[in-house]
Write a structure and sequence with these properties.
single chain; alpha/beta; Glutaconate Coenzyme A-transferase; 9-stranded mixed sheet; 28% strand; succinyl-CoA:3-oxo-acid CoA-transferase activity; Succinyl-CoA:3-ketoacid coenzyme A transferase subunit A; EC 2.8.3.5; transferase; 3-oxoacid_CoA-transf_A
Length: 234
Amino acid sequence: MSKVVTDINAALVNLQDGMTLLAGGFGLCGIPEYAIEAIRNKGTKHLTVVSNNCGIDDFGLGRLLEKKQIDKMISSYVGENKRFEQQLINGELAVELTPQGTLAEKLRAGGAGIPAFYTPTGVGTLIAEGKEVREFDGREYLMERAITGDVGIIKAQKADTFGNLVFDKTARNFNPLCAMAAKTTVVEVEELVEVGDIDPDAVHLSGVYIDYIFVGAEFEKRIEKRTVKEVNHG
């Protein structure tokens, strides 16, 4: 059966209320814009979402917060979203803050079938509360559990029809990790080619991790913070 779908909603049939959703992207870079909007329109709720951050108020995962579809966020950075802050303060949103490198390794381990690992990050902090601490070679390490999810939504620049993916520079970020750690993975891409048209050495993620491929007509690719510099031509 072909992995390519012309309707993004057809790729999200497995996503149900109460599931764990893994969402690729970093800030607003490399986020699955079409999938997020489709989930918003579908109205799926009580989600646990694992993502580096939660977008901004009116774009990215912030669109799901707007309709209160997320019950819990597992993230490493959440500082750009005022709605996120307010829902947390109001007790409407549970948040599990995780160091960024630890979050990446939790997803990588989950995708590799490794249930837990030890890291020195967070020892002696609030992050360590309730977690096993062991000493290796005179240094203390926390045991962290891996993360897996029911559905992964990711964004790539190019795919072939099997799902072999190429990411555009830093848009590579958390996308491959979310794909690997999810039971079902949906990728939205800008370009689709036939199998064999991507040099095997250029493949960033094997299509074995991909279940659905959706080609977006265009992507907004909003810039989170635009910084300009005045240039003196005199």
